[in-house]
Amino acid sequence: xxxxxxxMSSGAGMIIAGSPLAWAQASARPxxxxxxxxxxxxxxxxxxxxxxxxxxxxxxxxxxxxLGINQSYLGPVIKAxxxxxxxxxxxxxxxxxxxxxWHGLHIPGDVDGGPHQExxxxxxxxPDVPLVQHASMNWFHSHMHGRxxxxxxxxxxxxxxxxxxxxxxxxxxxTYGVDDxxxxxxxxxxxxxxxxxxxxxxxxxxxxxxGDTLVVNGAIAxxxxxxxxxxxxxxxxxxxxxxxxxxSMATGPVTVIAxxxxxLASPVEAESLLMSxxxxxxxxxxxxxxxxxxxxVNLDGGGGNGFFANLFGGNQKVTALTLQRSGDKxxxxxxxxxxxxxxxxxQSDATVTRSFQLEMDVGADLAALALAWDNFCGDAGAMxxxxxxxxxxxxxxxxxxxxxxxxxxxxxxxxHPFHIHGCSxxxxxxxxxxxxxxxxxxxxxxxxxxxWSEVLVKFDYEATKDAPYMYHCHILEHEDCGxxxxxxxx
Length: 490
Ligand code: C2O
Ligand code: CU
Ligand code: CU
Known about the structure:
The protein is mostly beta strands. Helix content is 12%, strand content 40%.
């Protein structure tokens, strides 16, 4: 009997009264279902997104001061289809300048929503966003230069699901809120008054801001959900500012079917799944035999960085979501064996190699310049890439449209999640080794720790010097502090 079958067959016995799983279930709040705007059937009018301030109860009875998009905290789940043009009206009603970046979309720089496309308070930004890519889970968040961390933490983030003909026809669970769930995972700090807090110090900039409380779709974990018998699909976003999350299931392995840029070639089973801030993965859970299962999160999955690593020796596991099976019949299909067949770029096509060194400590002279260039570092020293903190009117790299390139990334210290705008790429190596199988498909995030991480990337859309793309560390405090650069594609 393999490990999986053993765990499955022993699963019922493991869930006895008094077990941690039963406890988590009993004490859990219901999983909030994020409102969905489903555009796949057609778009008849412009799509309004209003960035607004709000008051939100994370489930502890306190009203936290938050930001949201069309609601008090976070944004809607937008579902649209490859081939559609999304005509957005993004209204900024927050009282502070912001932007809205479409993370993961293959779109030209002038509609990318990066730091050059500021939306002043009271103004409306009206990008027409063409969806050319395959089915994939993307997201949108503030990308205001020097303010991304605070605004995203406060709630300016939402999920954008792209479907295509084959994903809509695929034999996969797809009934939203029944057997198909979107999970936005975040870590939060709450003050003595129970309200969401965000405090910055030099030490916070070192690691990025990490909260001690896991929140799922805006509710303090654990949360619980009743699901029908059969396969259940979880589309998961790590929307933490800085925290790596190591996901596992209480019963059996994690079955991963998609990464940032779309479906894997076939499902991948893993003991655990390490998600950096900004990453997305889709997972299938078999609720055919077990009455209960749970998604667990090790809050110190990144290891090394941060508070829990020291306090708990790198293991601070909490239950994010318990799934409880009802008697209802749900998705009747079986675990797929083939998912997608998207041709990767050929390594031999790469004509250009670029190297990027992510730097934590750039010295006092550069730190002074970084601040003059509107980077935000609190009391900490500035950060940089290739010796240069982010500067809004400096273009760091010029890429030729249609070229396949090899980008090599290294660090001087710590673990960082590196992100590139306007593309999906393939990871050739991560920290000097092949990526785990679940990270070998289409990605727009790569982990960089020791050794080189290398990605093979092709840029097919234009980004001019007035609307360049960004590449940066997705620890948002590092990004704000200057660990970001700009490139054109022409
Ligand atoms: Cu998720 Cu440049 O961003
Ligand atoms: Cu992005
Ligand atoms: Cu970083």
